[in-house]
Amino acid sequence: MVNFLRYARRLFTGVHAVFLEGDMNICQEIEELRRHMRQMRKRIPAQTRALWSQDIRGNLDELLDSIKERREDRPLLVFAPMDEEINLWPWIKKRWEEGREQYFPLTKEGELRFYPASSVFDLEPGLWGIKEPVRRENPYQSGFAVAIVPGLAFDVSGSRVGYGGGYYDRFLREHKDLIRIAVAYRFQISDDPIPQADWDQKMDYIVTEEKWIDCSRYRSGVLLKGL
């Protein structure tokens, strides 16, 4: 596990150095970063992925406790993870057991919408086998909620590189009142700025297997130790 993490960080550093040389335009830089991150995630051993996912779930609970956002009346906008992503299913099922209201994403007419699901039976395989809500009614409209956001790469100030569709960026831009929490493996986080397009949206927090990061402290110039 340690050897893989060292390799991943070296690869991220090498990719970032190419960005700094200015040899690629912003779109090419982002696509190159996506490609490398996908490769790195595929190389995570299954046992390591399981351990990291468990630690991320625990740190996500710790973060929500610290910002006092575990009240049952405040909904969660979550996502159904793919095989190479962090396994959030135990965490999601626990929230259902607590009676927490949870919404899952669905791409419809070029837009990202979130629909309620109260159990796994309210979900069905959709595009690329990703589980989607069966019921397409009563979508999340507005109001205070916590959004758990996937992605391929981040930096400590909250910049995010997603999968390329721009769905989350458009959704987050339209819903400013959401608390945005990204979940990612530590090697997906750069200490230096990553390439961003003008429309890319920033995260409020990032949760990794090592700790959770308050991105606003980096944007304000107050650095956390130990990253």
Automatic annotation (TrEMBL):
It catalyses: (6S)-5-formyl-5,6,7,8-tetrahydrofolate + ATP = (6R)-5,10-methenyltetrahydrofolate + ADP + phosphate. It holds the Pfam family 5-FTHF_cyc-lig. GO terms for molecular function: 5-formyltetrahydrofolate cyclo-ligase activity; ATP binding; metal ion binding. It comes from the Bacteria. The keyword Lyase does not apply. Belongs to the 5-formyltetrahydrofolate cyclo-ligase family. NCBIfam families: MTHFS_bact. This is 5-formyltetrahydrofolate cyclo-ligase.
